[in-house]
Each structure stands twice: as structure tokens, then as C-alpha cells.
Design a protein that fits this description.
The chain is rod-shaped, with a radius of gyration of 13 Å. The chain has 1 helix and no strands. The protein is 93% helix and 0% strand. The longest helix is centred in the middle third of the chain and has 27 residues. It is mostly helical. Keywords: Membrane, Transmembrane, Transmembrane helix.
């Protein structure tokens, strides 16, 4: 169960981090 939660968090992070980075880059320009 812990492994499933960890995999879910990693997948979520992989999806969210690029979006946040894109927003930050847009704001910096």
C-alpha cells in the first residue's frame, strides 16, 4: 500500500512540476 501511494505521489509530481515550472518561466519573462 505504501508503495502504491509513493508511486501515485511520484506520478502526480511528474505531472505538476513541469506545469509549475512553465508558469514560473512565463512570469519571469
Amino acid at each position: 500500500m505504501l508503495q502504491e501511494i509513493l508511486a501515485f505521489c511520484i506520478a502526480l509530481g511528474v505531472f505538476i512540476i513541469p506545469i509549475l515550472a512553465f508558469k514560473v518561466l512565463r512570469e519571469l519573462r
